[in-house]
C-alpha cells in the first residue's frame, strides 16, 4: 500500500524574487499587464514541475497569488467594497488597489486593512463585509489555474480558503458596524458550491479547503458554522470534488466538537506544532475519513529529522491504518524561503542544517516512501548524519551561555529586577535635567539613498572601513545638529549604520546565520530575509557603543543608546527548534544586558531597548501557554535592562499592534513610547492613568509624509491630558523616521516640538 505525499502550498515569490521584480516593474510602468501575467504563469509552471519532479503525489494549485490569497478569495466572491468596485478596474489592478491603495488617473483609494496571518510574519488583507455585500463569482482563478496545471500534465488539488475562516477573519465595513460577518454564511455557501462545481467539471476530484481559524478561540456561533457549511457542501457531493479540511499553526483540540462528524473526505492537522493532539483528533474521525499528517515544518528552515517524522506517521497508521494516512507539510510552505541551492555563501557545515521549501518536498516524499516500504535507506542515513552533526556542531552549544541562563532562575537571583523601584529611580534621574513634556524621537532618521549606497559600497569592499566610518560620523554630526536646532530634549544618533534592526545585532552576535536569498513574503511585494538562530547566543564585543559615544560627544543634551530587544530579535528571526523560545530569548537578553552595561560605562545615561514584536509572539489561544509567554517575554526584557544604576533611564518602544497594559507595566521601563497617532480615542491610555512610570504617545504617523499642523498636535496632547497625568507624559512620533524624507521630517518634528513647548510653558506657570 503506497502512502501519498502532499504539499499544502508552495512559495509564490519565485526562487529569485521574480514576482516582486515583475510586480513592481508593472507598478512603475516598466512592464505591461500581460508581461506580469506571464511571469505569474512561469512561476506556477516552475512550482508545479519541481513538485512533480520531486515525486510529490498531491500538488496544490490556486496557492499562487499576485498579492495575497485571502484578498484573491474576497475578490473572487465579490467581497469588494463599493469604493473599489466603482472604478471597473482590470482584475490585477483591482487586486493591487485593494491591497496597497491607488492614486492615479482620477482613482484615489486607500489600501484595505492588512493584518497578521495568525502568528506568522505574513500579512493578509482583511475581508470587509457590509450589509450590501452580494456574494457572486466574479472570476475563475482557481479553475483557470487548475486547468493550466492540467495542461502541463499535473493533476492538482486546488486550495481554497474555507467559508468559516473567510468570514471570521473578516470585519464589517464602516456602514454596517453591527453586522457580524459569520451571519452571512448561508448567503455565501451557494457561491462556494458554484465554484466547487466548476472545479469538478474541470476535472478536480479533490479540493483542500483551509479552515485555519480552527486553531483560535472561537465563539459558539462560529463553531456551529462548520456543521452548517460542510453539511451544505455534502448535499451537493455528487457534483463537487471531495474535500480535505485543513488546519494548521496549532491544536484543534479545544474546537474538536466543531469538526466532529463533518461529512468531508478527510482532515489535515499540524503535528509539527501540536503532536500531542493525535489521539484526540483520531477520536473524532469517521471510519473512512483520511488523516493528512502535517509532519514537515512549513514555518521554519530546519532539516526535518526524518526518523522521528517516520515514527510519528507510523503511530498515526497504527491508529487509523495506512490506507487512510497521507504524509504532508505542516502548513503551506509560503512561510519558508524557496531554495537552499541558491545559498552560495553559507558555510557548508551550517548549510547542511537547513531545508527550504524545495528541499522540504524531498522530505515529505522520503517519509511517504519509507512508510510505503520503499528503500530510502541512503536518504535516511544522510539525514541522520546531518541531524547528528548539527547537535554536535561547535555552532550549536556554548556551555558558558547555558550556565549563565540558569543563573537567572537561581534562588535569590536579582538579574531581572532593577536596584530600586520607580520612585527612587525617578529621583535619581532628575540629574538628567529634563523639562516637563520632554521631547524625543524613536531612533532612526531618514535612511537616504546615499546612506544605502555607502553601506553597499562598504559591504562590497569598494570603500575602506575608515571612509565608511567617517561617513557615518558625518551623518551623526548632521542629525545631532538637526535635533538641537529643532529643539528636541533627548537626542538619538539616527541609526545610519544599521541595515535592519535585527540583522544589525544578529551579525555581531554568535549563534546567528544569514542567507543571501532566503526571502519570505511578508505582504504584497514586501519580502523579508530573517536571520536564523543556529546556536547559543553570546556577544563577543560591544555592538553600538562607538556610535552612541560619538554622538554623545557632539552635544550637551542626553543621547539615547538604541538597542533591539531580546523578544523582537527572536520573533523576527527563524528560531531554533531544539531549545525553547524562552531559553533563546533569555540568551539574547544576557547579550543585550552586557551591551546596556557597556553603554552605561561609556557615559550613556538614557538607553532604549525596542520591543515592537513582543505582542506578536503571544500564543494564539488564551491559556497556560499564553500566560507563560507573558512571563518570560517580560522577564527577558527586564534581564536585558535591569543591570543599570537607578540614575540610568531605560526606555522601551512598541509599535505595530495593540499592547495590553498589564504587559507593558510588567516590563518596568522608566519610559515607554507607544504608537498612538492612529487611535481614534484616548480610552486605551486611561488604563495607564495610575501607572507611575512615564509614557510617550506617538503623536504623528511616520508612515505618511503628511505634516500635522501645530494645532493638531496641541489638540491631541490636550485630549490625552484629559485622562493622563501631565508630569508623566513624553512627546514623540509613532516610530522611527527611517522611511521618511528629510523635508517632512523637519516639518513634522518642528511642529511637534512647538506644541510641546506651548504646553510646557502653560504647565510650568
Ligand atoms: C519597528 S520599531 C523601530 C525602532 C527603531 N529604533 C527605529 O527608530 O527605527
Ligand atoms: Zn516602532
TrEMBL record:
Binding site for Zn(2+): 653, 655, 675, 735
Positions with a binding annotation for 5-methyltetrahydropteroyltri-L-glutamate: 20, 121, 572
Entry GO MF terms: 5-methyltetrahydropteroyltriglutamate-homocysteine S-methyltransferase activity; zinc ion binding
Keywords: Amino-acid biosynthesis, Metal-binding, Methionine biosynthesis, Methyltransferase, Transferase, Zinc
Cobalamin-independent methionine synthase MetE C-terminal/archaeal domain boundaries: 437-757
UniProt pathway annotation: Amino-acid biosynthesis; L-methionine biosynthesis via de novo pathway; L-methionine from L-homocysteine (MetE route): step 1/1
BP terms from Gene Ontology: methionine biosynthetic process; methylation
EC class of the enzyme, as a word: transferase
Residues reported to bind L-methionine: 442-444, 495, 610
Cofactor: Zn(2+)
Residues at which L-homocysteine binds: 442-444, 610
InterPro entries for this protein: Cbl-indep_Met_Synth_N, Cobalamin-indep_Met_synthase, Met_Synth_C/arc, UROD/MetE-like_sf
Domain (Cobalamin-independent methionine synthase MetE N-terminal): residue spans on this chain: 5-319
EC numbers, comma separated: 2.1.1.14
PANTHER family on file: 5-METHYLTETRAHYDROPTEROYLTRIGLUTAMATE--HOMOCYSTEINE METHYLTRANSFERASE (PTHR30519)
HAMAP family: Meth_synth (MF_00172)
Function, as annotated: Catalyzes the transfer of a methyl group from 5-methyltetrahydrofolate to homocysteine resulting in methionine formation.
Name listed for the protein in its UniProt record: 5-methyltetrahydropteroyltriglutamate--homocysteine S-methyltransferase
UniProt organism field: Saccharomycopsis crataegensis
Lineage: Eukaryota, Fungi, Dikarya, Ascomycota, Saccharomycotina
Amino acid at each position: 500500500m503506497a502512502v501519498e505525499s502532499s504539499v499544502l502550498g508552495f512559495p509564490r515569490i519565485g526562487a529569485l524574487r521574480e514576482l516582486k521584480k515583475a510586480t513592481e516593474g508593472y507598478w512603475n510602468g516598466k512592464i505591461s499587464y500581460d508581461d506580469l501575467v506571464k511571469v505569474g504563469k512561469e512561476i506556477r509552471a516552475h512550482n508545479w514541475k519541481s513538485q512533480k519532479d520531486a515525486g510529490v503525489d498531491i500538488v496544490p494549485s490556486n496557492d499562487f497569488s499576485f498579492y495575497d490569497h485571502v484578498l484573491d478569495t474576497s475578490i473572487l466572491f465579490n467581497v469588494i467594497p463599493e469604493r473599489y468596485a466603482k472604478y471597473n478596474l482590470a482584475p490585477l489592478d483591482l487586486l493591487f488597489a485593494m491591497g496597497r491603495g491607488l492614486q492615479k488617473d482620477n482613482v484615489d483609494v486607500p489600501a484595505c486593512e492588512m493584518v497578521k496571518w495568525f502568528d506568522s510574519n505574513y500579512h493578509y488583507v482583511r475581508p470587509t463585509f457590509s450589509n450590501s455585500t452580494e456574494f457572486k463569482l466574479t472570476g475563475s482563478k482557481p479553475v483557470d489555474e487548475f486547468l493550466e496545471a492540467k495542461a502541463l500534465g499535473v493533476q492538482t488539488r486546488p486550495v481554497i480558503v474555507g467559508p468559516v475562516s473567510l468570514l471570521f477573519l473578516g470585519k464589517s465595513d464602516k456602514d454596517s458596524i453591527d453586522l457580524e460577518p459569520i451571519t452571512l454564511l448561508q448567503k455565501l455557501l451557494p457561491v462556494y458550491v458554484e465554484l466547487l462545481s466548476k472545479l469538478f467539471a474541470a476535472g478536480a476530484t479533490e479540493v483542500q479547503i483551509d479552515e485555519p481559524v480552527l486553531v483560535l478561540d472561537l465563539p459558539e456561533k462560529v463553531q456551529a458554522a462548520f456543521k452548517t457549511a460542510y453539511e451544505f457542501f455534502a448535499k451537493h457531493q455528487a457534483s463537487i470534488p471531495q474535500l480535505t479540511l485543513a488546519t494548521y499553526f496549532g491544536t484543534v483540540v479545544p474546537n474538536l466538537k466543531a469538526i466532529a462528524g463533518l461529512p468531508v473526505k478527510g482532515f489535515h492537522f499540524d503535528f509539527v506544532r501540536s503532536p500531542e493532539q493525535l489521539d484526540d483528533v483520531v477520536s473524532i474521525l469517521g471510519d473512512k475519513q483520511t488523516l493528512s499528517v502535517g509532519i514537515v515544518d512549513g514555518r521554519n528552515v530546519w532539516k526535518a529529522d526524518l526518523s522521528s517524522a517516520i515514527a510519528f506517521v507510523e503511530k498515526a497508521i497504527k491508529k487509523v491504518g495506512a490506507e487512510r494516512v497521507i504524509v504532508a507539510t505542516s502548513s503551506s510552505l509560503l512561510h519558508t524561503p524557496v531554495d537552499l541551492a541558491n545559498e552560495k555563501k553559507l558555510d557548508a557545515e551550517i548549510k547542511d542544517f537547513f531545508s527550504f521549501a524545495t528541499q522540504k518536498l524531498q522530505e515529505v516524499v522520503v517519509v511517504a516512501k519509507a512508510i510505503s516500504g520503499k528503500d530510502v535507506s541512503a536518504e535516511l542515513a544522510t539525514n541522520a548524519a546531518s541531524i547528528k552533526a548539527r547537535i554536535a556542531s561547535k555552532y550549536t552549544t556554548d556551555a558558558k551561555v547555558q550556565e549563565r541562563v540558569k543563573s537567572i532562575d537561581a534562588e535569590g537571583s536579582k538579574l531581572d529586577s532593577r536596584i530600586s523601584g520607580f520612585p527612587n529611580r525617578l529621583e535619581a534621574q532628575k540629574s538628567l535635567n529634563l523639562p516637563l513634556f520632554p521631547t524625543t524621537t524613536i531612533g532612526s532618521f531618514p535612511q537616504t539613498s546615499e546612506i544605502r549606497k555607502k553601506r553597499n559600497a562598504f559591504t562590497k569592499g569598494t570603500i575602506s572601513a575608515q571612509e565608511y566610518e567617517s561617513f557615518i560620523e558625518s551623518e551623526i554630526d548632521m542629525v545631532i545638529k538637526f535635533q538641537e536646532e529643532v529643539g528636541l530634549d533627548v537626542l538619538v544618533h539616527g541609526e545610519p549604520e544599521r541595515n535592519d534592526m535585527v540583522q544589525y545585532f544578529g551579525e555581531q552576535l554568535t549563534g546567528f546565520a544569514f542567507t543571501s536569498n532566503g526571502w519570505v513574503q511578508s505582504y504584497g511585494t514586501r519580502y523579508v530575509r530573517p536571520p536564523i538562530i543556529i546556536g547559543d547566543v553570546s556577544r563577543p564585543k560591544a555592538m553600538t557603543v562607538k556610535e552612541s559615544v560619538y554622538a554623545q560627544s557632539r552635544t550637551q543634551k542626553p543621547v539615547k543608546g538604541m538597542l533591539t530587544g531580546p523578544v523582537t530579535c527572536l520573533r523576527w528571526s527563524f528560531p531554533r527548534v531544539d531549545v525553547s523560545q524562552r531559553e533563546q530569548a533569555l540568551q539574547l537578553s544576557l547579550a543585550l544586558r552586557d551591551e546596556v552595561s557597556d553603554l552605561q560605562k561609556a557615559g550613556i545615561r538614557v538607553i532604549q531597548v525596542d520591543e515592537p514584536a513582543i505582542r506578536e509572539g503571544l500564543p494564539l489561544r488564551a491559556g497556560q501557554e499564553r500566560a507563560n509567554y507573558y512571563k518570560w517575554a517580560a522577564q527577558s526584557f527586564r534581564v536585558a535592562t535591569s543591570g543599570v544604576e537607578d540614575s540610568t533611564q531605560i526606555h522601551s518602544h512598541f509599535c505595530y499592534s495593540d499592547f495590553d497594559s498589564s504587559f507593558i507595566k510588567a516590563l518596568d521601563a522608566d519610559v515607554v513610547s507607544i504608537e498612538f497617532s492612529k487611535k481614534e480615542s484616548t480610552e486605551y491610555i486611561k488604563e495607564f492613568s495610575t501607572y507611575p512610570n512615564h509614557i510617550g504617545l506617538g503623536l504623528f504617523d511616520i508612515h505618511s509624509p503628511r505634516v500635522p499642523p501645530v494645532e493638531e498636535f496641541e489638540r491631541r496632547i490636550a485630549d490625552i491630558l484629559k485622562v493622563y497625568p501631565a508630569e508623566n507624559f513624553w512627546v514623540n512620533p509613532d516610530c522611527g523616521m527611517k522611511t521618511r524624507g528629510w523635508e517632512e521630517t523637519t516639518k513634522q518634528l518642528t511642529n511637534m516640538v512647538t506644541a510641546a513647548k506651548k504646553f510646557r510653558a502653560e504647565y510650568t506657570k
